[in-house]
Amino acid sequence: MKALYIASSGMSAQERNVEVISNNIANMRTTGFKKQRAEFQDLLYQAYRRAGSQTSDQGTMVPVGLEIGSGVKTVATPRVMSQGNVNPTEKELDVAIRGEGFFMVALPDGRTGYTRDGTFERDATGQLVNANGYQIEPGITIPDGANSISISPSGMVEAYIGTATAPTQLGQLQLARFANKAGLESIGDNLFVETAASGPAQLGVPNQDGMGNVLQAYLEMANVNAVTEIADLIAAQRAYEMNARVISGADEMLSATSNLR
C-alpha cells in the first residue's frame, strides 16, 4: 500500500524539520548565529489518467487528470540572514556589524572564514584574534602599553600608546559581502566559508559601498525568535503525528484485508 511509504516520507521530512528547529533553539544565545528553516518539495507523481487525454472520437478531453504523489522530501535548509539584535557588552574589543558584511578570519588550513561574531581578543603577540585564536584579516596588532582603544563606525582602530597625547592608528577593519550570502557553507565555530553558490567575496570598508557599519563594545545576538520557533515546533509535531496516524490507518486496512475469508 503506497500510503505507508508516502506517510513515512512525511514523517522523515518532519523529523528533519524538528532537527532544524532544535538547532535554532539551541543557538538562541550564540553570538551572530543565523537561523535556518527547512524547505520541502513533493516527490514524483504516478499518472493514472492524464489531463487533456481524449475520451472519444469526437475529440472530447479529460478536464482533470488522476495523479497520485509519492510523498515529500527535504530539499534545503537555507539560513535566514536577517539582522539580529545588537546588545552592549562594555568590552572594548567586542564589535558588532549593523547592516551588510562579515568579518574575515584566517583559518589554520589557509582558507578565509567569514563570521558575524565580533568577540575579539588579543593574543600573546598583540594580534587581534577571534575566540578560537584565529587572526582577524587584515591583521591588526595592538602593542603593549596601548590604552583607550577605539574602533570607529568605519572600522578604524586607534589607541593611545604609553603617555602619548594623540591616538595612533593601528589598522583598518574590513568586511566582506556576497551576492548570495545564504549560499555560504557553515563549518561550525560561528564561521562560514565561500562556495560556488555564494559567489566570491566582495571586500570593502565598513560604512562604504553598501557595507554596514561597526559598533564597538556591542555584539550581534542570534536572529532566533523563540515564539516563532515554538510555534513551528508544535506545527511540525502535529504534522508528524498525522503522518503516523496515516500509517496506523493503512496498517488497519491491510489487516482487515488479510482477515477476509
UniProtKB/TrEMBL annotation:
<dbReference type="InterPro" id="IPR053967">
    <property type="entry name" value="LlgE_F_G-like_D1"/>
</dbReference>
<keyword id="KW-0966">Cell projection</keyword>
<dbReference type="InterPro" id="IPR001444">
    <property type="entry name" value="Flag_bb_rod_N"/>
</dbReference>
<dbReference type="GO" id="GO:0009426">
    <property type="term" value="C:bacterial-type flagellum basal body, distal rod"/>
</dbReference>
<keyword id="KW-0282">Flagellum</keyword>
<dbReference type="Pfam" id="PF06429">
    <property type="entry name" value="Flg_bbr_C"/>
</dbReference>
<feature type="domain" description="Flagellar hook protein FlgE/F/G-like D1">
    <location>
        <begin position="96"/>
        <end position="159"/>
    </location>
</feature>
<feature type="domain" description="Flagellar basal body rod protein N-terminal">
    <location>
        <begin position="4"/>
        <end position="34"/>
    </location>
</feature>
<feature type="domain" description="Flagellar basal-body/hook protein C-terminal">
    <location>
        <begin position="216"/>
        <end position="260"/>
    </location>
</feature>
<dbReference type="Pfam" id="PF00460">
    <property type="entry name" value="Flg_bb_rod"/>
</dbReference>
<dbReference type="InterPro" id="IPR037925">
    <property type="entry name" value="FlgE/F/G-like"/>
</dbReference>
<dbReference type="InterPro" id="IPR010930">
    <property type="entry name" value="Flg_bb/hook_C_dom"/>
</dbReference>
<keyword id="KW-0969">Cilium</keyword>
<dbReference type="Pfam" id="PF22692">
    <property type="entry name" value="LlgE_F_G_D1"/>
</dbReference>
<comment type="subunit">
    <text>The basal body constitutes a major portion of the flagellar organelle and consists of four rings (L,P,S, and M) mounted on a central rod. The rod consists of about 26 subunits of FlgG in the distal portion, and FlgB, FlgC and FlgF are thought to build up the proximal portion of the rod with about 6 subunits each.</text>
</comment>
<dbReference type="InterPro" id="IPR020013">
    <property type="entry name" value="Flagellar_FlgE/F/G"/>
</dbReference>
<dbReference type="InterPro" id="IPR019776">
    <property type="entry name" value="Flagellar_basal_body_rod_CS"/>
</dbReference>
<dbReference type="InterPro" id="IPR012834">
    <property type="entry name" value="FlgG_G_neg"/>
</dbReference>
<dbReference type="GO" id="GO:0071978">
    <property type="term" value="P:bacterial-type flagellum-dependent swarming motility"/>
</dbReference>
<comment type="similarity">
    <text>Belongs to the flagella basal body rod proteins family.</text>
</comment>
<keyword id="KW-0975">Bacterial flagellum</keyword>
<protein>
    <recommendedName>
        <fullName>Flagellar basal-body rod protein FlgG</fullName>
    </recommendedName>
</protein>
